[in-house]
Automatic annotation (TrEMBL):
Organism of origin: Marinobacter flavimaris
GO MF annotation: an example: transmembrane transporter activity
Family membership noted in the UniProt record: Belongs to the ExbD/TolR family.
Name of the protein this chain belongs to: Biopolymer transporter ExbD
InterPro entries in the record: ExbD
Upper taxonomic lineage: Bacteria, Pseudomonadati, Pseudomonadota, Gammaproteobacteria, Pseudomonadales
């Protein structure tokens, strides 16, 4: 009778070298991308139900009202400062920035502004107005920096449009 010799079968070792190489490359790449993907947060002041004190009522309040067809820059003391009509169906943010720079040059200590969008205002338009009134790019000593305009933004509801200024559609 012949003896059968069984071959000893050994299991192959699991080679994790390619996986480790992948991790060595992937982890630093993910960590580097975390630095570039950051979210900016803008602090907003919402109106409270409290009545205004006498000092707050006398203080200058700059307002930017966003209507469907125009932007209105006004204050609580002198009324409308500038009506900015739309150009080619878009809000004129360049003119708005110029008006805000002019106001800032008159009252350099003022840091707050009230933005009042109408119900039809798109989110993108609201954010663009907020970005425009907050700061602008200025050249200082040969480099471009963000110069501050009115960084403290409050939100409110736009008043109803005056009856004579609304567009009439036929």
């Amino acid at each position: 009778m012949r003896r059968k010799h069984r071959r000893l079968q050994s299991e192959a070792d699991l080679d994790i070298t390619p996986f480790m190489n992948l991790m060595i490359v992937l982890v630093p790449v993910l960590l580097l991308n975390m630095v570039f993907a950051h979210t900016s947060v803008l602090e907003l002041n919402f109106p409270t139900g409290d009545s205004l004190s006498a000092q707050q009522a006398e203080e200058l309040q700059i307002q930017v009202v966003i209507y469907e067809d125009r932007l209105v820059v006004a204050d609580n003391q002198g009324g409308v400062i500038k009506n900015i009509p739309q150009r080619e169906g878009e809000y004129d943010f360049v003119l708005l920035k110029d008006v805000m720079k002019e106001i800032k040059s008159r009252v350099p200590d003022k840091k707050d502004v009230i933005i009042m969008p109408s119900r039809q205002t798109s989110y993108q338009s609201l954010v663009s107005v907020m970005d425009t009134v907050r700061s602008y790019e200025a050249v200082v000593a040969g480099s471009v920096v963000e110069a501050e305009l009115f960084p403290e933004i409050s939100l409110g509801d736009a008043p109803a449009q005056p009856s004579g200024s609304a567009e009439v559609s036929s």
